[in-house]
Amino acid sequence: MPRLPRLTPDTAVGASRDLLADLVSRHGQIGDMVSTMAHSPAVLGGYLQLSRAMGRAKLDRKISERISIAVQALQGCKLCLDAHVSAARAMGVDEDEIERAHAGTSADPAIAAIITLALQIYREPTSITDEQVIALRAHGYSDRAIADVVGVVALNILTGAFNLLAGLTPGAGLTAGSDTGA
After folding, report:
1. Fewest beta carbons within 10 Å, which of 71, 126, 147, 149?
2. What pLDDT, in 10s, does the model give residues 122-177?
3. CB of 115 within 8 A of CB of 31?
4. Contacts of 172 (CB under 8 A, 6+ apart)
């Protein structure tokens, strides 16, 4: 059961009303997470900006979704986890790789290395080493792609923590989506 009610452009106030009205006019509908985030225009605005920025990331989307699965498997946001698993499947990531991502790894050593980095950023960023970054470069990752991992993790922490606080879970008529959902 959601702990915070959804808001609409009619029920939101101030900057949140404007943000929601803009989203509705551009997308037609908005997801439960976004409509609930509208209780805080700072959180909603920050989420929308980070989400848009990460849409321009250099990190391959299939890898980004596997990182998101690994982070959400730890964080415990079922709504986010389901959304990222669905997105990974839609991109053609096979079930074995999705299961490996749940466990925080991949059969591909380069993808396993970047997932490991993401989980360190989530759990203990002080444990990241120079050698680890050098190894990521040797796997073919650019410095930009390596830096993008921080954004992917941050976006997952934000959405997962918000959904857990708000009590948003799969089912119960809730909708997940891209930058206007979960």
Report:
1. 126
2. 999 999 999 999 999 999 999 999 999 999 999 999 999 999 999 999 975 444 44
3. no
4. 1, 2
pLDDT in tens, 61-93: 999 999 999 999 999 999 999 999 999 999 999
CA 40 to chain centre: 19
Tokens encoding 19: 């943000």
How would DSSP label each residue in the chain? --SS----TTT--HHHHHHHHHHHHHHS---HHHHHHTT-HHHHHHHHHHHHHHTT-SS-HHHHHHHHHHHHHHHT-HHHHHHHHHHHHHTT--HHHHHHHHTT--SSHHHHHHHHHHHHHHH-GGG--HHHHHHHHHTT--HHHHHHHHHHHHHHHHHHHHHHHHT--SSTT----TTTT-
Q: 123-138: buried (b, 16+ CB within 10 Å) or exposed (e) per residue?
A: eeeeeeeeeeeebbee
Please state the pTM of the whole predicted model.
0.91
Q: Are 175 and 43 in contact (CB under 8 A)?
A: no
Single-letter amino acid code for the residue at 133: V
Please classify residue 112 by burial: count the beta carbons closer than 10 Å to its beta carbon, then call 0-12 exposed, 13-18 middle and 19+ buried.
middle
